[in-house]
Write a structure and sequence with these properties.
alpha/beta; Indigoidine synthase fold; 11-stranded mixed sheet; 13 helices; binds pseudouridine-5'-monophosphate; binds manganese (II) ion
Length: about 300
Amino acid sequence: MTPPLTLSAEVAAALAAGRPVVALESTIVTHGLPAPRNLTVAREAEATIRAAGAAPATVAVMGGRLHVGLEAEALAALAAARDVWKLSRADLAVALATGRTGATTVAATMIAARLAGISVFATGGIGGVHRGAETSFDISADLEELAQTQVTVVCAGAKAILDLPKTLEALETRGVPVIGWRTEELPAFWSRRSGLAAPLRLDDASEIAAAHRMRAALGLPGGQLVCNPVPAAAEISAEEIGAAIAAALREAEEAGVSGKAVTPFLLARVLAATEGRSLETNVALYLNNCRLAAEIAVALSR
Ligand code: PSU
Ligand code: MN
């Protein structure tokens, strides 16, 4: 049995010709950003990648097929759809086998990228170790995926809704290189700084590409996590966002939110509390990550 993979015309042509391709997740479209902005941002992300010389491959499960690269109508349909499943490693096969529609998280997008032969993936923030994980055991499957699937993921760090020191420790345990892009410090999504040192630093996309190849040459499974700080003009300081995060965590606890609902719940509450300002930050860092991912994909294709 072969996986029910469908490539967009653009992605199929780029892969066949050895041209650079960047994968994009779709949970950011269905669960991470509010409609109708989600669709404009998804389109802007694709346009940003094209402008930087690579083909965008937005990943989603639709009608029981794993789409790598969505045609324009399919992207619009996904952005407008209600009650879309949020698919991680655990759900992907069931969703495909039963003909569902679902959006892919970082973990599921990495699996799809690897299947299609795509090495680079841009997202906003990865899932990680949640605060209180010592009792809730809430640790994102994204971390396990980074440990086992050979894709370089560009993000703006992990959100301060998570426990960042524990997230870094979990990545270290799993042997995932966490690379600060032109920074010594781990960026924290909305903020450029976290107060935590980035374990590695690289300043050149060709070095990130070389390290990606070297891991494969060494036979190491797993990807690389490139952490690209939000552009300074769009940043919200840790102090400013802190109050919104604290309130969101309290509300989640009171409402008894658990499992895969936790991350979307917290993101929506922080968005509401900052009156949309965090949305602009989110968009700015996401597009910034798309540009860098395309640069790395171009370097890898040389
Ligand atoms: N972090 C964000 N925005 C997001 C997500 C994470 O800043 O939209 C999404 C990504 O798809 C990520 C997923 O892979 O949430 C992690 O969910 P969980 O914590 O349930 O594994
Ligand atoms: Mn979780």
